[in-house]
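Render Glycogen synthase in 3D.
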Amino acid sequence: MLESIQLEANVAFPTVAHAELQASAQPSISVKRRQSILFVTSEIADYIKAGGLGEVSAALPRALRHHYDVRILIPGYRQVLSQIGPVEEIGRLPASFGIPACGLGRGTTQDGLTVYVLLCPELYDRDGSPYVDGFGVDWSDNDIRFARLGLAAADIACGNGDHLWRADLLHLNDWPSGLASAYLVWRGQHIPTILTIHNLAYQGNFDRSRLSHLGIPDAAFQINGVEFYGKLSFLKAGIYYSSHITTVSSTYAHEITRPEFGCGLDGLLRTCAEQGRLDGIINGIDESWDPSTDPYLVSPFSAENCRGKRANANNVRQNFGLALSNGPLFAVVSRLVHQKGVDLAISAAETIVSQGGQIAVIGQGEPRFENELQALAHRHPGSVGVKIGYDEGDARRMYAGSDFLLMPSRFEPCGLSQMYAQRFGSLPIAHRTGGLADTIEDGVNGFLFGEPSLNRFKDAIKRGLDTFRSRPRLTAMRRAAMQRPHGWDRSASRYQEVYQRACQTALA
């Protein structure tokens, strides 16, 4: 089965031909040309986001642009086109198989990043998120929508679309862009490709009957290709055909090579790891997460002077219908789904309330968890407050005002919430998994528990409550959390190393 997968030699890495072609196409000048990176994503926080991928897609290209000519490719969703400003159509990408033709637009972010936008209203001009409609149901043509993205990435990398620019390397993100590396290989264009897995649980699996519509060769529908338990998998294709794989924390990179976290792809990922093609690189958070300057906060503060936290805590209590209190304030800022351990947080609420604590919850997700949380708030008026939905200002003030962030995720590839909380002096209480294990030092800048069970979670909460009662210890932990390095510089350096290895292998 998957454990026996062996990569084909002519698939794993690109050849020198593309590099020679690019070199010959450049003018003869003494200034060394910066490498060109096409960052392919299905969401970006500047315009549209459904989760952490949107935040990473906004921050990482900006962290890399001092070293590379980085450009972003994203579908032309309604939300993108309404916010990006002027978009110049610079080319047309032809229809292929069942994938419609589209225009290629070029715009810029407010700070000057080039963004390529796929202009195809029949696929992208819709309400809803990038992946689901307003009722949370997957778009029925998601295979075509994101095959269009992957094929466009391959075209642009080859110099089609924008005839003045081509990519030295593609940086792909999650299943929506996974087919890009495969399209390049099937064309014999071995341009280096990096695939970052942000969450292995989302794989883009479709019926095998869709192969011909997507231009996938029948010969590729096998274990050494795109086949995944009888289905076509965009993520499997991206993992198999890409030059290198990264994921968003060192611990998660190890976890996904084991059956309990590998989502059926652990065998392939073990092969990647054994070949030195799998790295874990922790995400950072952007510079806007600064409690001394954040415009959403009602009172600024810093690691040296945290007095402003009280004003933010009182604001949260008022907005969430909680009583004024000198007790500990716990926050939950999360998608309300099973992965996030929301059921554990609900079950632990009685312990928190009985010890004089309060809980503020913001998020949306599975209706059963939304209903259970609202019932919990009804049972504990003044102690539990719940808002279904999401508001950026509310979330930031919750991080700033809370003493603790509850994050009992069953698995967490990286997690950003714990870093937001730490930066704002709120101590995360989290399961020791994925990026949580990599960013939280137990008893120093947060609290970790070893298995996702209610008893272990409650033990960690009790340790937090004991710390709250010791003001010197609480102050020391807050300061350690706020002073932990949270930025993108270290992560960007790691990505540079991966890019260099992939390109050097291509030239070998």
